[in-house]
Specification:
The protein is α/β, with parallel strands linked by helices and 181 residues long. The chain folds into two domains: 121 residues, Alpha-Beta Plaits; 49 residues, no CATH class. Helix content is 32%, strand content 20%. Strand 5, helix 3 and strand 6 form a beta-alpha-beta unit. Helix 1 packs across helix 6. The longest helix has 13 residues. The radius of gyration is 17 Å and the shape is elongated.
Length: 181
């Protein structure tokens, strides 16, 4: 007996667009045409979700938490590299996606261009975030002491969850520091 059908009610929040969150947009010399969008997914386990989404090219940051009793993962991503459909597909492959919840009807229409209508619902409220990168924190705390960038932490968190060869994302100084410990 599978418990997956019982999880169908779990949802995801999609925020389109979140370009205002692009920190570089404030600087006159920064890339002002780069957009960042956000999507928040609810699933049975945010540790699996964060590690899964961290493997998708274009994911720039991730956060985990709770929303309405559900475990969530929120990601900021570069829409020129990936999109909601690709993020959703990655989660579906891990059996970690069921639907998207958007904050307004206009966002529902935007999401409907990429997903099936039955995968979309409107939800109001705010998530509560907790400390992210669980697999990295619990399995490799020595790496977190290296003052990692968000992209390094995402890659290393996914590696620590799924295993395999450690990604070569550390700077030479970080490698030296790690070796000296």
């Amino acid at each position: 007996m599978s418990y997956w059908p019982a999880c169908v009610a779990l949802c995801a929040l999609l925020t389109l667009p979140a370009g205002a969150e692009d920190a570089g947009a404030e600087d006159a010399g920064a890339e002002t045409d780069r957009k960042v969008e956000s999507a928040t997914f609810s699933m049975y386990c945010y540790w699996t979700g964060e590690a899964t989404l961290g493997r998708v090219d274009g994911v720039l940051s991730s956060r985990i938490g709770h929303w309405g009793g559900k475990e969530i993962v929120q990601v900021d991503y570069d829409p020129q590299v990936t999109g909601v459909a690709e993020l959703t597909e990655a989660l579906k492959l891990q059996r970690s996606f069921y639907s998207v919840i958007v904050g307004a009807e206009v966002e529902r229409e935007q999401a409907a261009r990429q997903l099936e209508p039955r995968e979309i619902a409107v939800h109001r409220g705010e998530p509560h975030f907790i400390e992210p990168k669980h697999s990295l924190r619990t399995r490799h705390p020595e790496l977190l002491k290296l003052d990692l960038s968000e992209s390094q932490a995402i890659a290393l968190n996914s590696w620590s969850y799924f295993g395999g060869e450690m990604p070569d994302v550390l700077a030479p100084e970080q490698k030296r520091t790690l070796k000296d410990r």
